[in-house]
Write the structure tokens for this entry.
Amino acid sequence: MEILGVIGPWQLVIILAIGLLLFLLPVIALVDIIRSDFNGNDKIIFTLIVLFLPFLGSIIYFLIGTNRKIRR
């Protein structure tokens, strides 16, 4: 069974999974940024990075930003 001519069911599942990842990763990053405390303007900077570069900004935040949180 082919949907839309050339896309089969497994390809559709893969496309939907990648699309879900591209949507959820920035949302998770923004929620984590909002709920955390940072020094100075780091919260605003990381929020803008994630908003303007959603996927890449989320990866940058999870690689660099999580280490910059204020630990309690």
User: Anything to note?
Assistant: The chain has a mean pLDDT of 88. Helices lie at 9-35, 42-52, 54-64. Residues 25-72 form one domain. DSSP finds three helices and no strands in the chain.
